[in-house]
Write a structure and sequence with these properties.
By secondary structure, the protein is of the alpha/beta class. The chain is 40% helix and 15% strand. α5 crosses α6.
């Protein structure tokens, strides 16, 4: 762990007499704070340890505003930074290393995830821009309750290895991959609903989505 730099902690002076904080290793990006009277202690995921000065200053200011009960959106400097290709490329290897459930390969025993991606591209359901600078892998565990996940910050998609089986139709795999690619299309947008009306509209454009959902429900029940 490393302490937050003094120039970043100075952003807390309008709200607290004393401030301290550090960068902590976490799998997912996040932050927390503890207020004790007129002092605040912050813990920020170490993915921001290399951020430019302005990003750290604005981020600490945001945390302090929220700590005193003020509504404060994520600052533009922070969003621009973490949405940049450089940030993603620099920090994604750490995220993947900390994601113990990722098999770190898109090539399974019976299915190759990028075959699903190619079919989705060929059908026009997704575009190259949706999946640019992304990483896709099977999971180690064959989860049937959560068959896919997406880290929009690091643009990582994980698909349950339970779908890497001859008893799963390509259409079902494609649907799950499509769902996660839609999250990539949305991008990182903290504080906003993930499965909003726009997302559901995109999702329902997949031919046979009802059938795919039925297979997944039966799989979970089994």
């Amino acid at each position: 762990m490393a302490d937050l730099p003094e120039f970043a902690l100075e952003a807390c002076s309008p709200y607290f007499r004393e401030a301290k904080g550090d960068f902590v290793p976490r799998k997912e990006f996040g932050y927390s704070w503890r207020v004790n009277g007129s002092s605040i202690e912050m813990h920020i995921a170490d993915y921001l340890a290399g951020a430019p000065d302005l990003v750290l200053i604005d981020f600490c200011d945001m945390v302090c505003r929220r700590a005193v009960g003020r509504r404060c959106p994520s600052p533009d400097s922070y969003l621009d930074y973490v949405r940049s290709d450089k940030y993603i490329v620099d920090n994604r290897p750490t995220y993947i290393r900390r994601s113990r459930n990722l098999a770190r390969t898109a090539c399974g025993r019976t299915a190759y995830l990028h075959d699903s991606v190619q079919r989705l591209l060929d059908s026009g359901l997704i575009l190259d821009s949706d999946i640019s600078n992304s990483y896709m892998s099977w999971t180690r565990r064959n989860n049937v309750q959560r068959v896919g996940f997406c880290s929009t910050m690091f643009r990582v998609v994980g698909i349950s290895s339970r779908l890497d089986s001859d008893d799963i139709p390509d259409m079902v795999r494609d649907y799950v991959v499509y769902h996660e690619c839609l999250h990539l299309r949305q991008g990182y947008r903290p504080g906003r609903r993930v499965h909003d009306a726009q997302f559901r509209s995109w999702e329902r454009s997949f031919p046979g989505w009802k059938e795919a959902e039925g297979v997944l429900r039966r799989l979970g029940a089994a």
